[in-house]
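Please fill in the sequence for the structure shown.

STRUCTURE ENCODING:
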């Protein structure tokens, strides 16, 4: 559609120096291009998921503003990742693939906003590290610059979700238990639509610890307390 192409160009094209891209350097890392393709697919679906979360908090002006910003920036990530892959000759997702991905998503709309916000917060935290790691590994400078911006945006998105959860806990202390339960059963949002997800690096211990600290900032207590509470009691304690 010509008008959409015009708006995409006006908003996004200037964010990348396309003529400066070192195509050969990009092609020397096919494993990174494969990771970008996977991220592109997930980002293509994110705006739809944000519309579902908007329905759960329809009257919350701050929450719906957050979901709108996330949807817009996720679309920007999708557009630029796809455009980059096309530019360097990578395996860019096709329109048909994006539509198929949407159709493969969860059949039922989400109903537990606390669980969804915990999954959202963690996913964006992991996405920031994912983009940062790929950018550091890449030999192609323009990709590194683009992904550095993506990583910063993902951290803001994660903080958005954390802020909403903190506000919920302040209004209702019972939400603490629900946050901890969701954290212990964390699901990456990408797993809603893809059968498996790739890691950009082998060791994610520090990232998991960072997620646990974020949960503690919401609940006011270490996530380890919730883990211990789930353990069966010592039979000798009776």
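FILLED IN BY: designer on duty
SEQUENCE:
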């Amino acid at each position: 559609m010509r008008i959409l192409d015009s708006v995409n160009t006006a908003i996004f094209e200037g964010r990348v120096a396309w003529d400066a891209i070192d195509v050969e350097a990009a092609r020397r890392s096919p494993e990174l291009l494969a990771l970008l393709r996977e991220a592109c697919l997930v980002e293509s679906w994110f705006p739809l998921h944000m519309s579902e979360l908007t329905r759960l908090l329809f009257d919350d002006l701050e929450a719906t503003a957050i979901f709108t910003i996330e949807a817009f920036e996720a679309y920007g990530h999708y557009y630029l990742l796809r455009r980059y892959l096309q530019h360097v000759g990578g395996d860019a997702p096709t329109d048909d693939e994006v539509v198929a991905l949407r159709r493969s998503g969860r059949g039922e709309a989400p109903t537990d906003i606390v669980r969804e916000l915990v999954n959202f917060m963690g996913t964006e935290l992991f996405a920031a590290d994912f983009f940062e790691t790929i950018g550091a590994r890449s030999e192609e400078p323009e990709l590194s610059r683009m992904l550095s911006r993506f990583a910063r945006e993902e951290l803001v998105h994660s903080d958005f979700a954390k802020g909403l959860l903190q506000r919920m806990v302040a209004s209702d202390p019972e939400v603490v238990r629900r946050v901890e339960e969701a954290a212990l059963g964390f699901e990456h949002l990408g797993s809603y639509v893809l059968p498996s997800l790739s890691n950009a690096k082998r060791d994610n211990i520090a990232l998991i610890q960072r997620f646990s600290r974020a949960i503690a900032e919401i609940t006011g207590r270490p996530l380890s307390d919730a883990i211990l509470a789930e353990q069966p009691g010592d039979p000798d304690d009776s």
